[in-house]
Amino acid sequence: MTLKRLHCVVATGVLSALGMLIVNAAEVPRISKSAAGGQLIVNRKPYLILGGELGNSSAGTASQADSILPQIAKMHVNTVLMPVAWEQIEAVEGRFDFSIVDHWIDVARGQRLHLVVLWFGSWKNGVSSYAPAWVKKDTKRFPRAVSGEGDELEILSTLGAETVKSDGRVFSELMKHIREKDQEQQTVLMAQVENEVGYLGRGRDRSEAANRLFRSAVPPDLIRKLQSRQDSFSPELRAHFNAAGKTWMEVFGDATDEVFMAWNYARTIEAVAAQGKKEYALPMYLNCQLPAPGEQAGEYPSGGPHPYYLEVYRVTAPTIDVYSPDIYWPNFEYWIDRYKFSGNAVFVPEARLESAPYNAFYAYGEARAFGFSPFAIENLQSAADASGSGPTIKDVYEVLSSLSDVLLAHQLSDGTRGLLLHSNSPRATRTVALGDYLFEATLSRSWPAKTPLTDEGAMIIVQSSENEFYIAGTGLTVSFFRNPDVDTAVGRIESVEEVSRSNGNWSTLRRLNGDQTNQGRQLLMPAHQVRVISGGSLRDTEERSRSLTEGLSRRRSLTSLW
Ligand code: DGJ
User: Fold this and answer.
1) 382 near 329, Cβ under 8 Å?
2) How many angstroms separate the CA atoms of 521 and 478, rounded?
3) What is the pTM of this model?
4) Ligand 1: which of 128, 130, 350, 352 to mutate, judged by most atoms within 8 Å of the beta carbon?
């Protein structure tokens, strides 16, 4: 892995600006939201989660921490998302056992890793498999959701009062325990409440309690709150909402069953999350199983925190800080962009490991996520072996960890962009604008045959000052243009340097030019590596617009990374 740069002075400036943010006193991690999105603040500094989520059966014993965490620590991952199951910590009602969680926290600390705990309580992927046996067996006390055919499902009903009470109690014990053990050191940064909730099956829960509630009017408070936030409605909710109605059908039309379930899950989760937050106010988020292409509600968990009816959650579950998509489907940009809305901070807790090296650039650069986390990160080695010589998320995280202070500082000021390109993208080039420049990317090709060298490419661009940019990426050839909407000057690459960074200091390894930059015309990002390259500086070669260039610096620098 190599880094390349043009001007180190700018990077040094950014570091000292960040340095001013360092304050001694510890505070509980929190989400800071702004118009540009949101960031996770840890010990008063923005923190970029270079994450990895563990497979479901990889954190169920203490000894797994000893074998798995040291391996993950070598992957430039800084935060591990680990399941904590209700059945694990309360196998016997009222007796709590945190020994496994404690060991994971201790080992993570030793490896200088942070943790996010995933609360597998009443629901995991729609069903209730992680509830303890004493809950599963007592269907009277812990009633099940009922299908349209009248069958009791393997899904705890959201309307079981004892379920909500017991889940809330064990979650609050967990949060209290984490506070007592960890508040000083803050190894644990956030908690996910339940996992990919929603009703699986046609329609909605048809238990007696659910039917009774469904026959009564929509709570006027829900209608009023929704009405006051119509500006934030998704197109789906806008198309269905009728504030003048009374019954669920009248108010939500064809979306009724899904909205009814969303409201019920949101109420239950709010009750559980609020109890936990009272004990330890870590940021709490919900993750969502998104529809596979063509799937209908009920095939995917209906009433989960999908973008469609998310406003129902937002008015019902104020304790939840962040709504997150788990993105396994090909249209990564579409789904992450749907979670980029005012009041949310973007965090992708689960993503496909194989496409993660590309999608990560888009997540941090374009969606300005504070975190990204491929699923089953412990399988990275075997996944990389199977896929051949492509870049891995480890390579990407290595680059991003050297840039994270610069990236975090500029996410807030609209100073970042990201771009993905696939061989089946509708267009062969994609262009993004940042600062006074356009960055036009195509997939890498061989020279002179011009055959495609890769099926995927991606990059992130950070504008570190008016005249300097960092670019990191893979599999792309990038051309630069002055943005003609700014002026009619012409910009060209002046020089390219390979740089590396150690302890915050950049150093030049070599200058690149000639064949390595297509004779100074383009940045060439190798197809099967993720490394950092400088783009050199851009020079105004012609002054066509006197009035505009007068106000501009004569030398434009551009540092790019791949
Ligand atoms: C999404 C779930 O949230 C994870 O726990 C895991 O089951 C993955 N799906 C498996 O692909």
Assistant:
1) no
2) 9
3) 0.90
4) 350
